[in-house]
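Researcher: Sequence recovery benchmark, item below. Answer with residues only.
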């Protein structure tokens, strides 16, 4: 099986991990998911949001959901939008989302097939600034362990009543066993904006390379 520079399997020719720039240690600073379609002359165009719908010439939005629906792998994948009623740090997701070959239970996606999974989460925050800075944090958890997190501080200028819109996203490629759980936690959950951009708060996973 072919591997990329990090040793991750690249078994699907239609998907690749693309790095943009390196940090001082030589590690990739930013990695995005690219859907390789030789018929799309606009391939490679960078977008501000990896999950934001963008209309193409066809009938499908150029986003993760479109990639999942058109990709040849159908064994295990999910696309969920955050619940409108968020009242705790661990997020819950709408049960009417797309879940195939994976189980949803109590805010967790539960793996049914072993293998390498690509996990993506994107959240929108709306903060009405108080008189002090506010830290927003997004965490991806495998079972109960934090595997990836993103932290940003807003309202640092102390401008009270100023509205700040902030997008946080995180991704992870991880080898998972059966009954492994995937969940998302946020710090300052009260600022997750489910009204202005209700379709932009998304958790998505897909089985990238099966090990059975």
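Model:
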């Amino acid at each position: 099986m072919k591997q990329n520079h990090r040793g991750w399997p690249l078994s699907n020719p239609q998907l690749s991990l693309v790095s943009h720039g390196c940090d001082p240690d030589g590690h990739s600073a930013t990695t995005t998911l690219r859907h390789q379609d030789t018929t799309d002359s606009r391939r490679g165009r960078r977008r501000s949001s990896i999950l934001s719908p963008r209309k193409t010439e066809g009938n499908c939005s150029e986003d993760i959901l479109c990639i999942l629906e058109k990709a040849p792998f159908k064994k295990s994948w999910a696309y969920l939008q955050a619940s409108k009623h968020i009242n705790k740090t661990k997020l819950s997701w709408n049960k009417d989302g797309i879940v195939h070959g994976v189980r949803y239970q109590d805010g967790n996606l539960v793996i049914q097939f072993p293998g390498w999974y690509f996990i993506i989460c994107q959240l929108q925050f709306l903060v009405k600034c108080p008189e002090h800075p506010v830290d927003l944090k997004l965490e991806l958890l495998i079972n109960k362990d934090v595997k990836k997190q993103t932290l940003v501080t807003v309202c640092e200028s102390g401008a009270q009543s100023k509205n700040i819109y902030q997008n946080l996203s995180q991704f992870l490629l991880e080898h998972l066993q059966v009954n492994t759980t995937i969940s998302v936690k946020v710090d300052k959950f009260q600022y997750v904006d489910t009204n202005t951009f209700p379709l932009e708060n998304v958790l998505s996973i897909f089985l990238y390379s099966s090990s059975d």
